Amino acid sequence: MPQSIYEKYGGFSAISRVVMTFYEMALDSDQIGDYFADVDMARLIDHQTKFISSLLGGPASFSDERLEAVHRALAITHDDFDEMGALLKAALEQHGLSEPDVRATLALIETKRNVIVHRDAA
């Protein structure tokens, strides 16, 4: 049985470290940093770790309906989503994921673009 990306890199704790690195970069981003101004970052990091873990073969699961409901009021644009992807790519690379695993992870995140980006976004 092939090993999932989640298992290959050490599971929840490894994904959590990637997510923490991602948010360190996101908070400094001129494009998306303002989204996190009044956010409970510890809670957000926990949710994001569960979300990414679920995409990579981990135990949690998130419905598209829930993802859409959580992001609806944020008015996230395609440019914001692209910035998030670029920062996540950098975080994944910084934590030693192979290039094919980085691409696979970003492809999985991309499958959620239509439920995360605001419907009226350009």
Automatic annotation (TrEMBL):
Keywords of the record: Heme, Iron, Metal-binding, Transport
Gene3D superfamilies assigned: Globins
Segments crossing the lipid bilayer: none
Chain positions recorded as heme binding sites: H47, H71
InterPro entries: Globin-like_sf, Globin/Proto, Hemoglobin_trunc
SUPFAM superfamilies assigned to the protein according to its UniProt record, in alphabetical order: Globin-like (SSF46458)
Superkingdom, natural source: Bacteria
GO MF annotations in UniProt: heme binding; metal ion binding; oxygen binding
Protein name: Globin
